[in-house]
Design goal:
By secondary structure, the protein is mostly beta strands. The protein has 3 helices and 12 strands. A hairpin with a 2-residue loop joins strand 9 and strand 10. The mean pLDDT is 92. Bound molecules: flavin mononucleotide. The site of flavin mononucleotide has 18 residues, from strand 3, strand 5 and helix 2.
């Protein structure tokens, strides 16, 4: 296929994608690793499997690839600061273990750090991986799950953080869309 789209154009288009902000963690050789990620989705319910896309240049990628395990911690809107702390893309100079100084962390089956106050944490064993360009797509089978604190998810869209608001009944919507929410 002849490609007419540059990486910059692609990134511009992807800004319209609203994503739930997660912290991906792993543990390798007794050290915790973690990074902010939105390229996370459900891959299957049977067996319970999540899919994550991780840049191969990240330190967390190396830890995940070697350890064969990871945990997806889905952030609450209140945990915006944690998202910044876990991303050098947002200016955090803190790496490795230092990122775990804030938040209440524990672990489940795999030993990957689990954020106790996340909305939910999926503790996974890597069952498949595909290298594509700059990234690796990992499939993780969920061995254990922790339903954490109730709340609203932290979202990221158009280069900024946002939180979810249900659309009220009666609110005008574009033609063809149905009402949802309460
Ligand atoms: C909102 C947001 C979402 C991100 N999503 C991803 C992602 O899905 N995959 C990825 O590889 N990097 C993503 N990043 C970038 C990583 O968080 C960043 O490069 C991080 O510092 C990498 O970890 P390291 O510093 O341990 O190498 C995202 C950053 C932000 C702020």
């Amino acid at each position: 296929m002849d490609r007419t789209v540059s990486a910059e154009q692609y990134k511009l288009g992807m800004r319209s994608f609203a994503g739930a902000v997660c912290i991906l963690t792993s543990s390798h050789a007794g050290r915790p690793y973690g990074m902010t990620a939105t390229a996370v989705c459900s891959a299957a319910a049977d067996p319970p499997t999540v899919l994550v896309c991780v840049n191969r240049s990240t330190t967390t990628h190396e830890a995940m690839a070697k350890a064969g395990v990871f945990c997806v911690n889905v952030l609450r809107a209140e945990d915006r600061e944690l998202s910044g702390l876990f991303s050098s893309a947002q200016g955090s100079a803190i790496r490795g273990e230092g990122r775990f100084r804030d938040g209440h962390w524990t672990h489940l089956l795999t030993g990957s750090p689990v954020l106790v106050n996340a909305l939910v944490s999926f503790d996974c064993k890597i069952v498949n991986r595909l290298v594509h360009g700059t990234h690796t797509v990992f499939l993780g089978e969920v061995g254990e799950l922790l339903i954490g604190k109730k709340g609203k998810p932290l979202l990221y869209a158009d280069g900024q953080y946002a939180k979810l608001a249900a659309l009220a009944h009666g609110e005008p919507l574009p033609e063809g869309l149905d009402y949802w929410g309460v």
